[in-house]
Design a protein that fits this description.
Layout: H1 2-43, H2 55-61, H3 66-77, H4 82-90
């Protein structure tokens, strides 16, 4: 009886650990995505009126910016609902 109860508690702990790790991974992925957006804004900031980096740095980074440019175009489409996107990422009800 006691052994079965201990096994159930361990199983519950393992499930809770997996859920917590899954949420942590989702949160980190969301943070990485936001950092990519910030990097894109820093390098391609002249498109939205921010001061841009020196031209030689921007040109050196341009070949690596294809994904960030696509993300910026995609975010323009969903820009009207940034709060709802943030709520869905962090699981706020």
């Amino acid at each position: 009886m006691l052994r079965r109860m201990i096994d159930r508690l361990k199983a519950f702990r393992d499930v809770a650990d997996e859920v917590a790790r899954g949420k942590a991974v989702q949160t980190i992925e969301a943070e990485v995505e936001e950092l990519e957006h910030i990097f894109g804004l820093i390098v391609l900031g002249s498109f939205v009126g921010l001061p841009s980096p020196p031209m030689h740095i921007a040109l050196d980074l341009a070949p690596h910016m294809e994904r960030e440019l696509a993300l910026m175009v995609q975010n323009v489409e969903t820009a009207n609902e940034p709060i709802s996107r943030l709520f869905s990422i962090f699981g706020i009800d």
